[in-house]
Amino acid sequence: MNGTGVSPEECKYLEISERKNLKEYKMYFGSIGEVQRFLLSNPDINSNVFYEQKSKTSSVDFAGAPLDEAINYCIGGYSENYDQFLELSKQLEQVNKKNVRVRKTVTSFVGQRPNVPAYIAGAPKNMYRLERTEEKKLKRIWMKVTYESTTSEEQIRNRGIIALNLINLLEMNNYLVDFRLFEVCNVESEVFRCEIELKKPGQMLFPRLCYYPMCGKAFVRRVLCRIKESMPFECGWGLSYGVVLNEQYTKMIMDIGDDDIYIGSPSEMNICGGNIYEDTDAFLKKIGISDKIVVPSYTEESQLKPDGGDK
Question: What's the CA angle centered on 64, arms 207 and 46, to 5 degrees?
């Protein structure tokens, strides 16, 4: 360790490139487990830039659990308010079930089981089969893990619930979903981008593994800060740890395509942190996906419940 951070030669997750007048430091992790493995290796800290290691020195009130615990939470163990998270998720799932597309059974020459009356009558189509499914389409979702300092825990929680619900909605409508968390920020002419794949296309969704990086403040204020502290930056990152880019530049740097779904901070996505149904409707209206899939009206559905839904 020489106090300058890691290099692409020794760190398989890091790629450094030049883009016009910018120098880009890209960290790509194929899973949340890879994030943990990288940090457990105790990567070299760039002490030339980071005079204070804020991933360790920040208060618990501000940054959450201490760094060692924050790293261990990456693959399980973080359960703060998780029961409430699951309960609200289930409320949205109940609405989804009413809108699920069920494959119809039709008569055919060949199929999975016989149509006995048709067989006895000598009809040529004497078998039952399920309608053919459409070819699956790929949809990539990018979720910005950072948010404004004024963002409430309820807004962060609701955004996480709604993001996972969006994945379920898309998969119900025959999409393969690629779900990635990211951070992108800059100091002067240097850009840092960190990309974490939480769900690969065709892979089962594990809410427990998504919950911490989506909703745990220690992930943003300790884990991501510790990753930055090992970057071989040359500019003055030590004070601010980077300035978050606006949506336009974020999409450009992250190469987010027009067909991809971008999830910004809760305020960007019109998520207020109150009624989960209202927040979900506002979010889905914001991303404008109703032309691709059937989108339920969650607020209307909740009003049909005897208790009026979640408050």
Answer: 100
pLDDT tens per residue across span 256-266: 999 999 999 99
One-letter identity of residue 33? G
Structure tokens at 251: 């999409």
Residue 32 and residue 22: Cα distance in Å, rounded?
A: 28
**For residue range 3-51, what is the model confidence (pLDDT) as tens digits?**
999 999 999 999 999 988 899 999 999 999 999 999 999 999 999 999 9
* Cα-trace Rg, the chain: 23
Q: Is the CA virtual torsion 78, 82, 86, 91 positive or negative?
A: negative
Using CA atoms, how far apart are residues 219 and 212, in angstroms rounded to an integer?
A: 7
Task: Name the amino acid, one letter, at 24.
Answer: E
Q: How far is it, in rounded angstroms, from Cα 14 to Cα 142?
A: 19
- How far apart are the C-alpha atoms of 144 and 100, rounded to whole Å? 28
